[in-house]
Design brief:
Elements: E1 2-7, E2 10-15, E3 25-34, H1 37-44, E4 70-78, E5 91-94, E6 97-100, E7 103-106, E8 120-124, E9 128-130, H2 137-140, H3 143-156, E10 162-167, H4 171-182, E11 189-191, H5 195-203, E12 208-210, H6 217-225, E13 231-236, H7 243-250, E14 256-259, H8 271-277, E15 280-283, H9 289-301, E16 310-314, H10 319-326, E17 334-337
Parallel strand pairs: 10-11, 10-13, 11-12, 13-14, 14-15, 16-17
Antiparallel strand pairs: 1-2, 3-4, 3-8, 3-17, 4-5, 5-9, 6-7
InterPro entries: ADH-like_C, ADH-like_N, GroES-like_sf, NAD(P)-bd_dom_sf
Keywords: Oxidoreductase
Domain Alcohol dehydrogenase-like N-terminal: 22-93
């Protein structure tokens, strides 16, 4: 098959062997797969996984890895021991995890779990969901990004006396904004430096958007929340060193912070300031299966419109330049690979 292959820190399109489905697995074709910031982090920071003993993500620079974990797929074949409940030709997606003999692997982050930046890859049948929707595959594949924000918004359990502030207007920020609105939470304040991203945040449901270069996000939040006894819940979606610490410094007493960014190189935090302010910090992690399914259903049913997040599509030969383009601050929320 043809695939955009990561090796020694470089991605290029070439021909590699087709994957072979094992017990309980489906062989699927990749009609569309989104480029996520975590793909960039994975390829740029191989050292980040050195202290991860789960085996779910392994970057061996000396072997081929096909990235891509935000996919809509089409069933091509069934491995041994499958129930064959999903017919050949059906469109599907799944939480980006595949079960292999050695355990679970993140799709697109292991040599043995190739992802959607190639013509074919493998899914675990038990985790796979049929796409019951007329949406294009390019839109369906955005559901995985939505699931991250959906899970954070769900776990935050905002009360009627709390107003959310979402920091950063990248895809995870946008998914968090959309999830909060879908869950009936509002008003939603979002802050980001790039005008095009702020416009997208508005399209995804933000009530107020702020440019941190012109106004403090916390002042923008206070103007919305008022002077009463209203709590702040900050969603940190940037993932750059110093951002979480700046939120600790800028936030009011009793603020709850959900940090979903996670810079690979780590960060330094003013823990004493956080202690004195009584700030709670919860770190993100991936979505639970239930939250992933809820987000997937919301997207496929059309209840959550992801069209504002979709940018351009590219073929396999364009993946290297598309990865570079995705690094730009004003890049669309999602560039989608169409193998």
């Amino acid at each position: 098959m043809r695939a955009a292959v990561l090796r020694n820190g470089t991605v290029r399109a070439r021909t590699i062997k087709d994957p072979v489905p094992g017990p309980g697995q489906l062989l699927v074709r990749s009609p569309a797969c989104g480029i996520c910031a975590s793909d960039l982090q994975f390829m740029d920071h191989p050292e980040a996984g050195l202290d991860d003993d789960s085996g779910m993500s392994t970057y061996d620079q000396d072997v081929d890895i096909v990235m891509g974990h935000e996919y809509c797929a089409e069933v091509v074949g069934h491995g041994p021991g499958t129930e064959r409940r999903i017919p050949v030709g059906a469109r599907v997606s799944s939480l980006p995890i595949v079960v292999v003999p050695g355990g679970r692997r993140i799709i697109g982050q292991n040599p043995e779990s190739p992802g959607g930046f190639g013509g074919l890859f493998l899914l675990t049948e038990a985790l796979t969901r049929p796409v019951a929707s007329d949406l294009t595959s390019e839109l369906v594949c955005v559901a995985d990004a939505i699931a991250v924000g959906w899970s954070a918004a769900s776990r935050a359990r905002l009360t009627a006396r709390e107003v959310p502030l979402v920091i950063g207007c990248g895809a995870i920020c946008l998914s968090t904004v959309a999830a909060l609105r879908s869950l009936g939470v509002g008003p939603v304040v979002a802050a980001g430096l790039v005008a095009s991203r702020r416009r997208t945040a508005t399209a995804m449901g933000a009530d107020v958007v702020a440019d941190p270069a012109e106004v403090s996000p916390y002042e923008a939040w206070r103007e919305v929340a008022g002077t009463g006894d209203v709590g702040c819940v900050v969603f940190e979606c940037v993932g750059l060193p110093g951002v979480l610490d700046s939120i600790i410094k800028g936030s009011a007493r009793g603020t709850r912070i959900f940090s979903m960014g996670g810079p690979p190189q780590g960060d330094l935090l003013r823990t004493l300031t956080a202690k004195r302010k009584g700030i709670s910090i919860q770190f993100g992690g991936g979505p639970t299966p239930d939250h992933w399914n809820e987000a997937f259903d919301a997207v496929c049913s059309g209840r959550l419109d992801v069209r504002p997040m979709l940018g351009r599509t590219v073929g396999l030969d364009e993946v290297p330049t598309a990865l570079d383009a995705a690094r730009a601050a004003d890049a669309p929320a999602r560039i989608v690979v169409v193998p």
